[in-house]
Amino acid sequence: MSAPGAGIEVTGLSASYGTGAPALRDVTFTAADGQAIAVLGPNGGGKTTLFRALLGELPATTGSVTVRGATAYAPQTERSRLDFPVSALDVALMGAYARTPWYRRIGAGDRALARDALARVGLADRAGARFGALSGGQRQRVLIARALVQEAGVLLLDEPFAGVDRTSEEAIMRILDELRADGRVLLIATHDVEQARGWDRVLCLAGAQIAFGPPAETLTNAVLEATYGEEIVMLDCGNRAVAIQHHSHAH
Amino acid sequence: MEILRSGLLQRALVEVVILGATCGALGVWLLHVRNTYAAESLAHAMLPGLVLATLAGAPLLLGAAGGVLVAAGLIALAARDTRVGAEVAVGVTVTTAFGLGAVLALAPDVPARLGELLFGDLLGTSTTDLVAAAALAALVAFALGAGHRSLAAAVFDPVAAPSLGVRPGRVELALLALLAVAVVAAVQGLGNLLVLALIVAPASAGIRLGASLRGQIALAAALGALAGLLGLVASAELDVAAGASVALAAIGLYVLAALLRPAAGRAPATRRSPIEALVS
C-alpha cells in the first residue's frame, strides 16, 4: 500500500489555546514524498500544539495549514489508559471507526486490514493480548498498526522511542523506514538530538520555530542553544553537539 | 415463590431488574471515564428539581431535567472564578442544591415524599411508572449500543480520538446526559441516593471479573439485575426497605467479586487517586 501525494504545508502558523498568547508561532515548513521530519524542542516548546494544529483540533490564529492525506496520531502510550480492557486487535480496529457508520459492524475487509497491519508491525501473534499488558515498544507498534488501518498518509508520532527497549526501537525504526518507502510523511517528536540527525529534516520549536532544514545544516550549536535555552548542557565532541536535557517533573 | 403472586411485587421486580441491568451497563462506562464524582453530583443536584416537580404536580422527568440544567449552569458559573476551581464549584453547588431540596421537601405544606425521592418506593411502582422506566432504560441501552465504538475511542485515547472520527467532549457530555436519564428512570424506584449503588457496585464487580469490554458490560448488567432480584426478595422475606435492600445486595455482590478476584486485571502502574483505586 502506498500513499502518493501525502504532504504537509504550513505557512506562518500561530496557534493558541483560548484567548491567551500563542503557544506556538511563526511556523513554516513543508513535507512530502515519504519525508520523515524530527520535531525537536523542550517540554512546552509547542510540539503537541503543532500536532493538534495539524490534526485540525486547534485552529490557526494566523497563517495556514494544509495537510494532504488522512492524518493519524500516535500519542505516548505511557499516558494512555493501560487498564482499559481492549486488545491489540481492538485498538488496530479503531482505525476503521471513522469510516464505519454507527449502525454497522466493522466490515470483514477492515478486520482483515487490521490483522495485516498487526502482522506488518510484527505483532500478529499478540492480536488478542490486552493493550495495557504489552511492552512500551509493542504498544507503540500497535498504534502504528492503527494508523495503517486508518490508511493515513501523514503520521504524527509523539516520542515513539520514549521508554522503549533496544529491540523494539530497532523494530520501530525499521517500520518507520518502510512507511517512508510507501510515500507516507512522518513527523516524529523527539528529545533525542542524535537520533534526529538520522531523519530527512529537523524542525526545532521553542514557542516559535527556531529552524527547519536538513539535519547536517540545521543542528548547529547556536540552533540547539536557541531551542533548548537553559535546559541544555552542551558537550562538544568533535563538533557535534550532544543535548542533555534536565527532566523537570513540574507539570 | 410466594413473592411472584402479588402484582405489586411483580411490577417492582420487573422494574428493579430493568433498572439494575441498565445502571450496571452504564456504570461500566462511568467508571472507565473515572466520572463517578460527576455521577454522584448529578444525581444529588437534581433533588430541588424533583421536589419542585412533586409540588407542582409535574412529571419527575421535567423536574430532574430542570434541576440538572440549573446545577450545570451554577457549576459553570462558579468554576469561572479561578480561585474556586471546578471541583470545589461542583461540591458547593451540589451541596447547596441538595440542602435546598431538603428544605423545600421538609416545608410544612409539602406532602411527605422526601423519603421517596431520596430512597425510592419500589413497591409503589405503578404500571405507568414501569412503562416510563422501561422506555427510559431502553433509550439508555440503545444509546450505549449505538455509541459503543465512540465511547471506547474517547475513553481509551481522547487525544487521538478526533483523528479517529470521534469527539471526546461530545461523547462525555452524551454519557452524562444518559446518566441523567438513567437517574430519572430510577428515582421512582430507588431514589436519588440509592440509585448510585446500582450504578457503581455492579459495574465495579463487572470490571473486576470481565476480561473484555463487552464482557465487563454484560457482567455488570447481569449483576445489576441480580442485585435487584436478590434485594427485592430479601426485602419481602425479611420485611425491610426495598430500595435499601437492593443497594445492599449490589454492594454485597461487589464484595463477593472482590474476594473472588482480589487484584484482577490490574494494569501496570498508572497513577490513580485512592478513590479510583477503590472502585476499580
**CATH homologous superfamily label of chain B:** ABC transporter involved in vitamin B12 uptake, BtuC
Structural class of chain B: mainly alpha
Largest sheet of chain A: 6 strands, mixed
- Radius of gyration based on Cα positions of chain B: 19 Å
* CATH superfamily label of the largest domain in chain A: P-loop containing nucleotide triphosphate hydrolases
Q: Please list the strands of the largest sheet of chain A in the order they lie side by side.
A: 5-6-7-3-8-9
CATH architectural name of the largest domain in chain A: 3-Layer(aba) Sandwich
* Residue windows where pLDDT falls under 50 for at least 5 positions of chain B: 264-280
State the end-to-end distance of chain A.
40 Å
Strand content of chain B: under 5%
CATH class of chain B: Mainly Alpha
CATH architecture verdict of chain B: Orthogonal Bundle
DSSP strand content of chain A: 25-35%
Number of helices of chain B: 12
CATH topology type of the largest domain in chain A: Rossmann fold
